[in-house]
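Annotated sample (chain length 136).
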Amino acid sequence: MYKVILEAAKTIGSTIPSNIKVSAIVVCVFVTLDTISGVWLSGHSSGLSSKISREKLAAKCIQYAIICGCSACGAAIAGTWNILYLGHFGIISIEFMSLMENLVKLQKAGGANIAPIKPLINILSKLFEGVENEQK
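Output written by the structure step:
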């Protein structure tokens, strides 16, 4: 039974283009970095709650499953992997912005020394201040 599953996984894996595999790995890296920065921010601001963390991770998983599912269906219909690649790019973009938002908040709270990327953080900080003011 396990041999059949392993052979099927190898067959499916061999048909996936390398750029899709690489973009999936990059997605995993960005999701991991964003999750770590979110936990770091929560811990630094004494707002660490396993219930809130579970809810946010569940929401993120559902959101990304929908994005990947729609992209995969579009790729199957169109007969090209590029649509799935675009779905990955969307997730990477969302995670990058979330990671930068977490770093901005950590910098303001004094929980991170991010000198090498400080100019980028300052620009994004101004951007996020406008977004936060609109949300209030």
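Annotation: The CA atoms of residues 41 and 106 lie 6 Å apart.
Annotation: The mean pLDDT is 79.
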